[in-house]
Amino acid sequence: xxxxxxxxxxxxxxxxxxxxxxxxxxxxxxxxxxxxxxxxxxxxxxxxxxxxxxxxxxxxxxxxxxxxxxxxxxxxxxxxxxxxxxxxxxxxxxxxxxxxxxxxxxxxxxxxxxxxxxxxxxxxxxxxxxxxxxxxxxxxxxxxxxxxxxxxxxxxxxxxxxxxxxxxxxxxxxxxxxxxxxxxxxxxxxxx
Length: 192
Prior knowledge:
Blueprint: E1 12-16, E2 20-24, E3 30-39, E4 48-54, E5 57-64, E6 71-77, E7 87-96, E8 105-114, E9 117-120, E10 133-136, E11 138-141, E12 144-145, E13 150-155, E14 158-164, E15 171-174, E16 185-190
Parallel strand pairs: 2-8
Antiparallel strand pairs: 1-3, 3-6, 4-5, 4-7, 7-8, 9-11, 10-15, 11-12, 13-14, 13-16
C-alpha cells in the first residue's frame, strides 16, 4: 500500500480593462486602469494585493478584500509617470495572496508615452572659421532632462551628426568646413 498527498491549487486570473494605453504627459491628464481578479470555479473574493509596475519599477500596490470585491483601479498621471521617457513602456500588474491554495497571476499592457519634448539651442553660436563648432542642446521631456533617444543635427537642412543621449553627452563638436556666413542649425529628437 502506497500513499501520497495531493495538493489542488485554484487558478487565479488577473485581467485589465485595457491592452494598450496612449499617454500624453505634461498636460495634467489622468488615466484609469481597472483590474479584476477571478477564480475559475467560484465568485468568492480573493484577498490579496496587486503590485503595479512600469518597466520593473513598482509604482503602487492595490488591495483586494471584501470592501473592494475582486476589483481595483489605478490612476496614472504626471506624478506617478514623471520619470518615463517618450516611447513604449510596459505596465505589469501582479496579483499575490496569502492563500496557499491559490496561484498568483500577472497581466500587462503597453503604455505609449508621448508629450512635449523640448530642445533648446543657444540663441546664437559664433565661431571663427578656423575653430571647430560646438553645438550644445538642452533636451527635456516632462520638465526633466532626456537620458535616452537620439538627437540628429542639421546645418542648413544637411544632416551633420547624431548624438545618443544615453551617453550623457549634451553637445556635439563638428568640423568647421564652412565658408564665412550665416547658417541655420536644427536639432531633431527620435526616441529609441
